[in-house]
Fold this sequence. Notes:
Blueprint: E1 2-6, E2 13-18, H1 24-32, E3 38-44, H2 48-60, E4 64-70, H3 79-91, E5 99-104, H4 106-118, E6 125-129, H5 132-138, E7 143-148, E8 151-158, E9 163-167, H6 176-193, H7 195-203, H8 205-209, H9 213-233, H10 249-259, H11 266-283, H12 289-301, H13 314-323, E10 332-339, E11 342-349, H14 351-359
Parallel strand pairs: 2-9, 3-4, 3-5, 5-6, 6-9
Antiparallel strand pairs: 1-2, 7-8, 10-11
Keywords: Amino-acid biosynthesis, Aromatic amino acid biosynthesis, Cobalt, Cytoplasm, Lyase, Metal-binding, NAD, Nucleotide-binding, Zinc
Domain 3-dehydroquinate synthase C-terminal: 182-327
Protein name: 3-dehydroquinate synthase
Amino acid sequence: MQTVRVNLGPRSYDIALTSTDPAGFAAFARRAAPKAKLALVVTDANVISHASTVASGLQSVGIHSQTAVVPAGEASKSVARLEALYDALAELPADRGTLVVAVGGGVVGDLGGFAAATYNRGLPLLMVPTTLLAMVDSSVGGKTGVNHPKGKNLIGSFHQPAGVWIDTAYLASLPDREFRSGLAEVVKYGVIQDPEFFEYLEANAAAILARRPDTLVHIVARSCRLKADVVEQDEREETGLRAILNYGHTFAHGYETVGGYGAWLHGEAVAAGMVGESRLAERLGRIPVAVTDRQVRLLTAFGLPIAGKPEWATEALIDVMRRDKKSQAGKLRFVLPTRLGHVELVDGVSEDLVREVLRT
Ligand SMILES: NC(=O)c1ccc[n+]([C@@H]2O[C@H](COP(=O)([O-])OP(=O)(O)OC[C@H]3O[C@@H](n4cnc5c(N)ncnc54)[C@H](O)[C@@H]3O)[C@@H](O)[C@H]2O)c1
Ligand SMILES: [Zn+2]
């Protein structure tokens, strides 16, 4: 078992990673929540079997649990589902020591996490991510929340978990497209923070796609460490550092909105978004073309898109970017590479330059 420690003072916690020791979960849960006697396991319909393994593990260390199953998909990140979780917690009945255990992808993590953040002014939370995206991104960093009809993640809070248990064996049942989509965020960490990790991904692309257990544990552990490094320095998105995690995401937001949520998975939009933003950096003279080319090759090897669909209108994409929370007073703002492994926040990028990139 490997451990990644997230250092946040009194809110510090461990991310435990394994591919071979499923039984280690029970002891990990006990350590993370020494006093818990009761738990609510939150899961979705596609991962019930993983949730029941988790529930047995909890039982073996004296934590009795109920399971709340939500339908799979983004629509479950709703106030209505949240309310149902509050009902389930009230019925248990939950007290301050009751554990919420989120077993699933980012949807279950964000929803269950927000229930834990708010019920009884905060319950301990254990994350058991089952998608690659959740393992490398959403379960690290403490952001929780649900959607509002007016916007994604509009209702939310920061709530750090008591622990994160990652068993990469859970990925065996993950559909190929979801798996590849999660790889986009993994590539992102290489570009923004770690050139050696990027090289590792290039050299091991085949093993990664074959989901070799040791390789998966390595890339997930490294991704968690890199995200934790950022979160430790900017826990609540106040210093601006956390913004580097948005590399590729301004373009991605355009693709997701114009394509309609659901046309592309998030990671697919991020893959094409990174290439677009890297081309912007090229045109601004910040990087040589080779830096983009390497991303294009790696993302292509992972079966990810490297450009938006031709039918997505340039002006519509620009319009979304203009409204992006990172933009200010009509000028576009991007996180751009200065070399492989380093990015900077760049203000005042002209719309014409973005247009040019979108049209090539
Ligand atoms: N909190 C954060 O910091 C943060 C960061 C990034 C994304 N997110 C959120 O995460 C969500 C997306 O997460 P996601 O990509 O994990 O999507 P998801 O939770 O919808 O899971 C994707 C699909 O895979 C299925 N699934 C999950 N694990 C499986 C497994 N092991 N085997 C088979 N099927 C499995 C799910 O049922 C679902 O159908 C979005 O709502 C996004 O806003 C949050
Ligand atoms: Zn993302």
